[in-house]
Amino acid sequence: MRREDMADLAAFAIVVEERNFTRAATKLGLSQSALSQIVKRLEERLGVALIARTTRSVAPTPAGERLWQTLAPMLRDLDQSLAALGEFRDKPSGTIRITSVEHAAKTILLPAVATLIADYPDIDVEIVTTYELSDVVAEGFDAGVRLGEHVSKDMVAVRMGPDIPMAIIAAPGYLSQRPVPSTPHDLAGHRGINLRLPTPGTVNAWRLGHGGREIRVRVDGPLILNTIELILDAALAGLGLAYLPLAQVDEHLRQGRLVEVLGEWTPPLPGYHLYYASRRQTSPAFRLLLNAVRYRV
């Protein structure tokens, strides 16, 4: 393969990743017209259209998608191999991309990363928060953070924290208007403030249990939100019951702004784990991250 072919393929890959010529050109340090010419030249050389362009979007054609699926893992492996050369430098360096749920990012990941980048200024970290169970390899992440039970068996998993105490809470004003629930069955008469999951039409079920028996409960309500910070705000405003990590509401409980119900029915969730592909080459920077987030009893 000619050197220019490799450069053109890498440029094409960035266009597909960004789904935008302007952002891709900025990332590559090129003008938009120059990048467009590179893709056009590659298409002419291969004899197929690779990118479908409209006034509003850029997306790979079926041929472009097939090429991207072949290129993406090769380019990631190359990036990892180059990053691994940092072992021969005096200071660990490189960029680490992590996908995480919001609560884990705020309570565990960000504090650990803050210390890491302060101690190693040549390391960059990108954290993307989502509740979607991401394929870290296909989506170009170095690692992901999820509850232990949601980690695929073919991944290496490192526990980041203990199990997570949960609580069902509401504002005193809300509970003054309705009977306080004493069993999960009583939740049918209440309004739930629910967390939207990425799958269309799906909200997070509340995990309850007692005496070794576990059930999943969905509490209907007029309000569905996609961050737990907003759910907490809505609960404080008296808009319904919410199912949240106890640590997030503990101060409000102590101050009387919220009240916990069904405490004996609310077991902890499995702790967060950082997971990554077992075949991944771990760079010095990534190994430092693993050490920073690893849970120690």
UniProtKB/TrEMBL annotation:
Classification via SUPFAM superfamilies: Periplasmic binding protein-like II, Winged helix' DNA-binding domain
Gene3D superfamilies per UniProt: 3.40.190.290, Winged helix-like DNA-binding domain superfamily/Winged helix DNA-binding domain
InterPro entries in alphabetical order: LysR-type_TF_proteobact-type (IPR058163), LysR_HTH_N (IPR000847), LysR_subst-bd (IPR005119), WH-like_DNA-bd_sf (IPR036388), WH_DNA-bd_sf (IPR036390)
Any Pfam family hit: HTH_1
Domain spans labelled HTH lysR-type: 4-61
Residues annotated as signal peptide: none
CDD domains with a match to the protein in the record: PBP2_CrgA_like_5
Keywords: DNA-binding, Transcription, Transcription regulation
Family the entry assigns: Belongs to the LysR transcriptional regulatory family.
Protein name: LysR family transcriptional regulator
Species assigned in the record: Ancylobacter oerskovii
Organism lineage string: Bacteria, Pseudomonadati, Pseudomonadota, Alphaproteobacteria, Hyphomicrobiales
